[in-house]
Amino acid sequence: MKKRLTEAEFQAALAGLDVGHQTVEIARGVLVQGRSQSEFAETLSLSKGAVSQAVNRIWAAHEAQVPPGCERLTVLLPKHQAFIVKKWASEFAKKREVKA
User: Which end of the chain has fewer CB within 10 Å, C or N?
Assistant: First the structure.
């Protein structure tokens, strides 16, 4: 699965990040416009690793976001309760994908 974001999701991921213009343009090109990382590596004379790092930094910020009305928790639970909570999390993730 290719990592893709809408422009709005991309802008939300950038909020609060301290990244340079080049990082933003590389990440936008790959994540929003669907251009290849190799294209940026060649065009800007950067290593593939440097381009990948730019993209991954924005993607990680996107994944770390908590949707409105939700809360991220870290808890210790007995296995049977953890199973139930993991099931809820999976169902919630599926519902969010359908809306996107």
Answer: N
